[in-house]
Amino acid sequence: MPSSSRRAVFLDRDGVINDSMPVNGSPHSPASLDELRILPGVPEACARLKQAGFLLIVVTNQPDIARRKATKASVDALNQALRDQLPLDDVFVCPHDDPDNCGCRKPKPGLLTDAAKRWDIDLDASFMVGDRWRDVEAGQAAGCRTVFVDHGYNERRPVNPDFTTHSLLEATPSIIESHAKVIMTPTVQGLKIKIFADGADKARMLELYGNPAVKGFTTNPTLMRQAGIADYEAFAKDILAHIPDRPISFEVFSDDFDDMERQALKIASWGPNVFAKIPVTNSKSESSAALIRRLVQKGVQLNVTAILTAPQIDEVVDALKGTRHSYVSVFAGRIADTGRDPLPFMIQAVKACNAAGGMEVIWASPRELLNIFQGDEIGCHVITVTPDIIKKLGTVGKDLNGYSLDTVKMFYNDGAAAGYRL
Ligand SMILES: [Mg+2]
Ligand SMILES: [Zn+2]
Prior knowledge:
Blueprint: E1 7-11, H1 42-51, E2 54-61, H2 72-85, E3 90-94, H3 110-119, E4 127-130, H4 133-142, E5 145-149, E6 163-165, H5 168-183, E7 194-198, H6 202-209, E8 214-218, H7 221-226, H8 232-242, E9 248-251, H9 257-268, E10 274-279, H10 289-297, E11 302-307, H11 310-319, E12 326-331, H12 332-336, H13 343-356, E13 359-364, H14 370-377, E14 382-385, H15 387-391, H16 400-418
Parallel strand pairs: 1-2, 1-4, 2-3, 4-5, 5-6, 7-8, 7-14, 8-9, 9-10, 10-11, 11-12, 12-13, 13-14
Helix pairs in contact: 1-5, 10-11, 11-13
Bound molecules: magnesium ion and zinc ion.
């Protein structure tokens, strides 16, 4: 199936564009031009949706024509009046009533599918906005996402609209944003966030150094111990001989602040691309802020790590003031593991570091590939990524239809290979 490039917002008319004049909780169509009142915010919403690249197409049931309570001419006159005042691209009318059993009366999708043919519209990338269940069901039947404008009518409510709002204007940001998220094909090249690899295995680090997507490295004593490294300094110097030109963090391992300072100065002396990694507190829960200030004054580039709270972010950013270049490493994944959303923490850290200058935020301990894109969206500077997530970079932007088919084939092949019979 050829994919169409155009996208539309389908607009129900009465109750979305113009006042539906409810009587005892039931909406009505305006009978004539002097009853036609465009609802507040509709001109602004239409302008913003047009600017975002949507066609604006009215799809309206007008059963009063079949019921002989209105003429086609009077309905056309009202529609023309709306087109004169709003940037509408087209209007599709169903003049029938239920007994006509037509294909266009909503909840049937005929008006939307006719419009899609005439305008070459991608229905999957389009939205249906309406104030009644018939609108939402027509949109769902056409494969659109749906917006229910809830006026509290005394009637059945639609099931599972994607958004529920009180006006077209209120729905407009959701339409524009969710459109961008679904349509965008993410790419690794399009990322502004820098990917750092977390690890301590030499062969693996050198392999990643050959990957231009990996812009830096972090290590920690836990990973180094797991990798069986006995001589810390020899390991670090060996790695730095091979990786002299990308940021790399080595962590102090003392618990005493004077000794940490000595270790940090030594680590910093190993090369211009080296960052001394300092935990936000020692193991007695004493703040490292004073040590951080001393090291900043001595010109040491730091990576302050194990940050998990909002006060810690503020304290560390304040202590780092005056640094040429340091990292504030917030453990988003560990925050998420407690059931808390890490995004507000990360946004706070990005704002504070940008305001202070000289500092970059590291999204540490990511849990899934999506975290790279979440970090990128909020302007986070760096994300440390584990080898299993780096392997998944190959699926970024993969076509979802193709991916679905791969999944179906995998199930089929495994079922066949197992020789299952039913
Ligand atoms: Mg309506
Ligand atoms: Zn019809």
